[in-house]
Amino acid sequence: MSSDSLPLNLNDVQREFPGWQIDPHEQLSSTNRHAVERAGQFRTPTLVITEKQTAGRGRGRNFWISGEGSLTFSLLIEPVQYSIPANEIQLLSLMTAAVVRQAIINVTEIQASSLQLKWPNDLYLQGRKVCGILLEQPAEKRSLLVIGIGLNVNNSKAGMIAELQHTAISLSDILGAELDSIQLLIEIMRCFESALQSVENRTQLFPQMWQRCHLLDDTLVTLDRGESGKPEDLIIGRCEGIDEDGALLLRDQYTTHRIYSGVIRHWS
């Protein structure tokens, strides 16, 4: 789809980011799946965005349900273009959550203290999930990275399925009014580009943010290292924060575990 045929609101995005390819859709099963499967057909960077997503994915066996009014998109980048070394790629999940948090603070009246990051890839608002992030590398193009973002903007919790109404929330639920999703998208992309282009932001500013506003600090956490649910893969410990390398610190009766990958099953 050419930029001339983009919906008017996405023309605003294209004007703001002329170097990005924009791939818009009315409906996709998953923006991440679409970007991963067609990575070789896009130039970088590319924004894949859809009005409706029918089979969004999360970490492990988790899934992401995107109701009408949500902001659902994926960013396809080539980390080497931003001089991001391979050992920093794992930090981009936390960095992206921090970027979305900052963008929300910049363009809404939501209080910073109510927005918390949850290791490794979620954003919570007043204790409920408002945003999920998923990083994937295309099997045939390992030099590329797909960053999927699902943000509850105008999809009120009242319209969510019953199992989510007590665990999820949208920005409009808190603000009491609908937001301009495209202007929020533009701010997210501004913050994202700024973070990618600045070594200081990536290595200092955003680590400080996720260390300062982490939801799980001082809670008792059950973590699944194998993402399988098997008892032998579970670690239960008190969360002591996130270190500068993005590792979750869990303290049990024997030691402090530094964990780089896994799924949080429970916390209290």
Topology record:
Blueprint: H1 8-16, E1 21-28, H2 31-37, E2 46-53, E3 56-57, E4 63-64, E5 71-77, H3 92-107, E6 115-118, E7 122-125, E8 128-136, E9 145-151, H4 171-175, H5 181-197, H6 199-212, E10 220-224, E11 234-242, E12 248-251, E13 256-259, E14 263-267
Parallel strand pairs: 1-2
Antiparallel strand pairs: 2-5, 3-4, 5-9, 6-7, 7-8, 8-9, 10-11, 10-14, 11-12, 12-13
Helix pairs in contact: 1-5, 3-5, 3-6, 5-6
Textual characterization of the structure:
By secondary structure, the protein is an alpha+beta fold. The protein folds into two domains: 3-212, Bira Bifunctional Protein, Domain 2 (BirA Bifunctional Protein, domain 2), CATH 3.30.930.10; 220-267, SH3 type barrels (Roll). The protein has helices spanning 8-16, 31-37, 92-107, 171-175, 181-197, 199-212; strands spanning 21-28, 46-53, 56-57, 63-64, 71-77, 115-118, 122-125, 128-136, 145-151, 220-224, 234-242, 248-251, 256-259, 263-267. The strands form three sheets. It has a seven-stranded mixed beta sheet with strand order 1-2-5-9-8-7-6, with helices on both faces. Strand 6 and strand 7 (122-125) form a beta hairpin. Helix 3 (92-107) crosses helix 6. The longest helix has 17 residues, at 181-197. The chain is globular and about 55 Å long. The model is unreliable at 1-5 (pLDDT under 50).
